[in-house]
């Protein structure tokens, strides 16, 4: 959690606007909350599918604690718990501005669009996470290779969490499945202080596919 709060401080220092998945728990929930406390609610835009939003009673809202696991049994827990009065739209809060969308595909597309609307240094940053996190990291890396976007993808590799993935990339380059230049699309930051410089200094690979994606 300390790395998440420090990342929020770095974003605040560099006037970064955060786009994220809209949840209130875990590392990204902490980044969002910390950045809003420093920069205000308009500094954070969360985008979340309706299926991951739980409409709660006053009592269950009181029992929902940031970062706490669900006690509702197995399966994917809600990433956001809201009051029934906010079911048609979540107002600005300690987690910033939130947009509810229909599905996961819309969520990812809208998040990517918002990031690509940004100025110099815009890009994608990943903290530690599970299946969903790695899926998003690899999709944004693949989109870069395909020429859909040309901004950086940075892994914040605290305590070696991403060492296994980075070793896989190196092996894929060695075995010829990824070119040496494209192997650098996915950048590593070992300290929070390296994230912003890595995004600013990102150089587009000269071996990306030269494809015409139109309005993609």
TrEMBL record:
NCBIfam families: Rossman fold protein, TIGR00730 family
Listed Pfam families: Lysine_decarbox
Alphabetized PANTHER family for the sequence: LOG FAMILY PROTEIN YJL055W
SUPFAM superfamilies: MCP/YpsA-like
GO molecular function: hydrolase activity, hydrolyzing N-glycosyl compounds
BP GO annotations: cytokinin biosynthetic process
Name of the featured protein: Cytokinin riboside 5'-monophosphate phosphoribohydrolase LOG
One of the record's GO cellular component terms: cytosol
Domain of life: Eukaryota
UniProt cross-references to Gene3D superfamilies, sorted A to Z: 3.40.50.450
């Amino acid at each position: 959690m300390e790395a998440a709060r420090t990342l929020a401080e770095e974003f605040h220092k560099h006037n970064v606007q955060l786009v994220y998945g809209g949840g209130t728990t875990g590392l990204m929930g902490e980044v969002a909350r910390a950045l809003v406390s420093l920069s205000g609610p308009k500094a954070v835009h969360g985008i979340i599918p309706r299926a991951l939003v739980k409409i709660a009673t006053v009592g269950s809202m009181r029992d929902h604690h940031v970062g706490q696991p669900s006690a509702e049994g197995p399966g994917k827990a809600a990433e956001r718990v809201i009051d029934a009065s906010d079911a048609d739209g979540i107002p600005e809060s300690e987690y910033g501005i939130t947009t509810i969308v229909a599905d996961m595909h819309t969520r990812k597309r809208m998040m990517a669009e918002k990031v690509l609307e940004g100025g110099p240094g815009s890009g994608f940053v990943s903290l530690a996470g599970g299946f969903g996190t790695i899926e998003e990291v690899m999709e944004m890396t693949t989109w870069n290779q395909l020429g859909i976007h040309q901004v950086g993808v940075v892994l914040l590799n605290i305590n070696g969490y991403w060492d296994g993935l980075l070793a896989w990339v190196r092996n894929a380059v060695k075995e010829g499945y990824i070119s040496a230049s494209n192997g650098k699309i996915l950048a590593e930051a070992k300290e929070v202080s390296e994230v912003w410089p890595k995004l600013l200094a990102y150089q587009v690979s000269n071996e990306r596919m030269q494809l015409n994606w139109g309005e993609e």
